[in-house]
Design a protein that fits this description.
The structure is a homodimer of 555-residue chains. Chain A is mainly α and 555 residues long. Chain A has 24 helices and 8 strands. Helices cover 62% and strands 6% of the residues of chain A. In chain A, β5, α20 and β6 form a beta-alpha-beta unit. In chain A, 53% of the residues are buried.
Chain lengths: 555, 555
């Protein structure tokens, strides 16, 4: 922790300052927008951007990760809280903080249990499908706000023209900025990096412009809704909690914490690779857990590392988490100056920034690559996206887990197993399907190229059964364990049963090339004593001893 | 399907008949008892033992599996339905059938999707923990019935003495039979097999004896509760369904279907190994699915293959599913003769048979073996049992899934990776940690001994980063893919990112010994075109070309 502080060099400062300023200007509209997605007052999004990144900087290991509100996690928050409280109510805000607290505690617990390997959970296609589905759900959810329609009603006939014009105009401006602003700036002579970063600040500019229009054109009198009163001052430390809802929030907190971790890691890993730095997933869990607990204690809601914001942070020159500390300080400062102008921020313009932001998440390149490369992965992507759209974002997580899980089990259940033969004139044994190798009558040598565990013992048993059935005169089965790094308890039992079965059929079960650590374990079990055969140090020794025995026996 | 019928030989008939009769005598008390565990009238347990085994015989692949009511699945049924309807109500029975229907449809869908590899899901310790926890829950649940206490009240002061004496007596008799009857029969000159089977019929004898005592001693007048009116005649075909509860039953049906499959497979696999026969897990899914749909259509509840009953079936000589058809016919016949005597069956005696049956499931041998052999597996067992006891049987399944899953991901996230060197004077390349092998300056050869996929790409990346950090003058990284049977879409992206990262650091990325099917896939991608290095047929070729290049470059 704070590893970066001990190794801080002066040369890192300019990059950190520029990144800190740029991300702060990106964070103000984004934080408010994502608070709206979560069904919370916009100022809560700024609260949740102050303490969480500071705590992440203390415990996390990514130097460029920007922790704060994030679209998908906000959507999960809204979807969790909608059945429990009315959006905008005090209970709703309390429950949002409580969800952040529970998610944070889940993450901390996972970090302390050191189960950060969970980060390798979703396949990239499943993550992409989840993101695509969520982006569509979020964009559709913002259409009423964009058009000034009341949430509850049928929104199309209910469009409020001034709101729709403002929202539509902001949307067009942002889309234009997204497509052309970077190249325009480059043509004007800015460096590509500066041009790209400038384009990322378009939302701030559009939001400021739209806010200026509200008093100028009297839009409030026309019925354009604004964010309304934004309390000045820093969020105060308090834990708002409702005893009635702990249980209802427990399962959603597990899902939310899980996605907080997966989303943050998938972004951080890409950036870490670019900087050739190493993430420690267990510290990441603790950093994200602390960030969410911090968010809860300052009246916020669940937060995570945002891929898009972290990429801007990185591009703007962030070298260390000092950049995020600068961002947090600027946001805290923004709350200490008069915030009256924030009250005039028109909701249709904020909806437009959300829609354009999530359009950036609607990325079909993974789908296109997977479709050409591995159709099953492409179908998993589509199924996850469809799951989010049809069943909601929580069910989408479950669908994604089930599909990734299925892929894992399927893969584990197909270990590579080779029948070995002896390369003539040598002591080398190779796969008879790939090499010209001798076999000995009555002797079957099988090499399993995977650790033996519950996920593949059945497949190993079936393959043994098949190979023996294909060689009815088999008298000795030698399992060559040169590639077996571990044998778990399930596989130990399976070996014991295999041994008993082969014994009744008059077939010996022998083990060769058992690795040291595996042998140490096996000595703790009863398998070796019961073994209906022998242990051989090398496969060549097994071959010599058993083929001699066979020759002797048949003579 | 019906493979066994086409290959039926006359010599198989005696075994099938004796097994059919024995299992029928075991099934009557067991079916009624497990219906009580599920909160249903006892006769429903007999209904659920008629059509399901017939449908399983049509579609399933185990020759000795006995499909019908089973303790754990009955517990899951009760736990699912308790919040939805009052036990004993018509709605409750309707929902039990509906749960069987949905579970059956889930199983059929899984079978048609050919995802039978799911059977390799629970590790044996997790399954053992689940069984132990469930057996305790079931036994505790039967104590009130054993002692004649009313379910709702505090049962200890509420004990009904005549019931408690009858129940306690039955319990002692059954425990004595369990411990000594088999050896007693063997001493009386019966063969070990006959003695063992005789001991298994003790529950039937005790239940018959207790039933005879009811009118003899006027126990009903004393307040001993009996099963009451048992309607004669076969169950009629009908689908009782409640539209209101489809949704509430959907998630429990997924869990129930999953456990039906896991429980049935774990028993069937043990028996299949003994008979050297092969199960087809996809047909098993279809057989169990059809059995549950059949149970639903005849007013039953979820059923599965019972390990203990199938073992008796096997021991009593069953050669084919004809044995189960005989059992089903005998049970149908039993419902066609006057069933008045069944009404007198005292519930305390039935509770005693349940308690003794689930004591047989309380098997700590797996725990003891795991404790010595692999402490982590032992802890997973204990955690699963504790999960069932503390959180209930459904949560126990989820805990078991999470633990098995965690083990899978953990294992997948630790692929074996070797740095290779050349064995002097040969073209063989081996792990430098295990062999005396030459390395070349600037050249790093890494062999990954696992397919590359989302579960291990991060680990591979990290290892590459570490190895390069340990050899700062590395100019060429050769990934030796001789053991890589597949590269999924996630790993394809990761390789692309690795390639881009190495390019910026001036390190070439080369691939050697790419297998044919893997290469065919890679040709569909953009990786090969973008590769910052070359493809080599053999590692020796890579070594020669790249070390010559290095020597040339440094000269």
């Amino acid at each position: 922790m704070l590893h970066w502080l001990r190794h801080y060099r002066r040369a890192m400062l300019p990059g950190d300052i520029s990144a800190g300023v740029v991300v702060a200007m990106m964070m103000i509209p984004q934080g408010m927008a994502y608070a709206l997605v979560a069904g919370l007052p916009p100022v809560v999004g700024i609260y949740a951007s102050i303490v969480p990144p500071v705590l992440y900087a203390l415990f996390g290991t990514s130097s460029t990760q920007s922790v704060g509100p994030m679209a998908i996690i906000s959507l999960m928050t809204a979807s969790t809280l909608a059945p429990l409280a009315a959006a905008g109510s005090a209970l709703y805000a309390t429950l949002a903080a409580q969800l952040a607290l529970l998610s944070g505690l889940v993450l901390l617990a996972c970090g302390l249990l050191r189960i950060g390997f969970m980060a390798n959970f979703f396949s990239r296609p499943v993550m992409s499908g989840f993101t695509i589905g969520s982006s569509v759900v979020i964009a559709l959810g913002q259409l009423p706000a964009l058009l000034g329609a009341s949430r509850a009603g049928a929104w199309l006939p209910d469009v409020h023209l001034p709101s729709a014009i403002l929202g539509g105009g902001a949307l067009l401006l942002l889309l234009a900025a997204r497509s052309w602003l970077a190249s325009l700036l480059r043509h004007l002579g800015f460096s590509p990096t500066v041009a790209d970063i400038g384009a990322k600040l378009a939302p701030m500019a559009v939001v400021l412009g739209a806010t200026a229009l509200v008093p100028a054109l009297g839009l409030e009198a026309l019925g354009v809704r604004t964010t309304g009163n934004v309390p000045a001052g820093l969020p105060f430390l308090h834990l708002a909690a409702s005893h009635d809802h702990w249980q209802a929030l427990l399962q959603p907190a597990l899902l939310t914490g899980f996605m907080v971790f997966l989303i943050s890691m998938s972004g951080a890993q890409t950036l870490a690779l670019k900087r050739a730095e190493k993430l420690h997933s267990n510290y990441e869990l603790i950093g994200l857990g602390a960030a969410n607990v911090g968010s809860a204690l300052t009246g916020g809601f669940p937060v995570t590392g945002s891929i898009s914001r972290s990429a801007v942070n990185f591009a703007a020159g962030a070298n260390t988490q000092l950049a995020s500390l600068i961002t947090a300080s600027l946001l805290a400062l923004a709350l200490c100056v008069p915030t009256g102008w924030l009250a005039l921020l028109p909701l249709p313009a904020l909806a437009a920034t959300i829609i354009v932001a999530v359009l950036g998440m609607f990325d079909t390149s993974t789908l296109r690559t997977a479709w050409r490369y591995d159709r099953a992965d492409a179908l998993a992507l589509i199924a996850t996206a469809a799951g989010v759209l049809a069943l909601g974002v929580e069910a989408g997580v479950v669908v994604g887990v089930a599909l990734s899980m299925g892929a894992l089990i399927w893969r584990a259940s197909r270990p590579h197993i080779a029948v070995l033969g002896r390369i003539p004139g040598t002591e080398h044994f190779r796969n008879v399907d790939r090499y010209t190798a001798d076999t000995a009558p009555g002797l079957l040598l099988l090499r399993v190229d995977a650790g033996l565990f519950f996920g593949n013992v059945e497949a190993v048993n079936e393959r043994i059964e098949d190979e023996i059935a294909a060689r009815p005169c088999t008298r000795h089965l030698v399992l060559v364990l040169s590639a077996v790094n571990a044998i778990d308890t399930s596989a130990l039992f399976a070996l014991g049963e295999l041994n008993a079965m082969l014994r009744t059929r008059g077939i010996g079960l022998h083990l060769s090339e058992v690795k040291g650590p595996v042998m140490d374990r096996l000595k703790q079990s009863e398998l070796l004593a019961a073994l209906n055969g022998r242990l051989f140090l090398s496969t060549a020794m097994a071959w010599d001893a058993l083929s001699a025995e066979e020759a002797h026996g048949s003579r």
